[in-house]
Amino acid sequence: MPHGPARSHAPPTSPLRGWSLVVRGVAGGAFMGLANLVPGISGGTMLLAVGVYPQFIGAVAKASTLRFSPTALLLLACVGGGAAGAIAGGAGVIGTLLDGYPSAMYSLFIGLTLGGVPILWRMVQPLDRPVIGSAAGAIALMMLLAATDPERAGTGASSDAAAYAMLAVAGFSGGAAMILPGVSGAYLLLLLGQYRPIVDAVAAVASAARAGDADMAAAALFVLLPVAVGVGLGVVCVSNLVELLLERYRRTTLGFLLGLLLGSVVGLWPFAGVPSTAQAAAGAALALTGFAVSWTISRLGRAT
After folding, report:
1. 76 within 8 A of 144, measured Cβ to Cβ
2. Can you give the pTM of this predicted structure?
3. pLDDT band for position 2 (50/70/90)?
């Protein structure tokens, strides 16, 4: 009898090891990378879905304070490698689809975003005033952000220095969003007016590598280097903050994340006016497809 409870509690608390760590780390990184190309989809939610979110947060927090361990470094390498590969391979495709089929893509994005709701909904139960209040505040914040004009938000840079500073700020925002389930890094980049420049630069680097064009690669890297610096700072700062908040105010923090996830849908409405019946039906079908994909990923994360 004394041994039964110990065995039943071991699996949830035991760290990922070996191939489980590698496979789930690479898969989570790839999903996170693709999510960071798509406005409205949260990279942090993808890590949560495949079951490596707590380990990733802990690994970044340890590495940022120079507390290295082989397991943490392996996980960071797997997630980082998966994300880099997905971003390099998917940037051009995502940009092309957004240009050609914006309504269809944003309908899909809505479904993909809402597919992450069940994860956080289960985690915040039972609902109480702190959870509801933090969620409501987050929804209000996302509605305010949605009212911001993305086309005007990024036009204030009047010099190279200001442009590089804005790229670094955008990178910091994107890096922070990688860590927060329910917060879309690409959506924040869109609001800052830096989404297309960054996505186009990533696609240019990939094209330059295939063509052996050093000049094209150098021009794109001038855009990506300040972004990379900002991303690194954002990931480190927010990882440590989230680890602290989840430790001290877990359910209130999760309620806020749930509100961010729900509120982000406001800015993803795919139609400029009232859609026709055919447009509404197609949009609903794509949204349901996106929801099914995102929800299935979350189920896979729970199953392993």
Report:
1. no
2. 0.63
3. very low
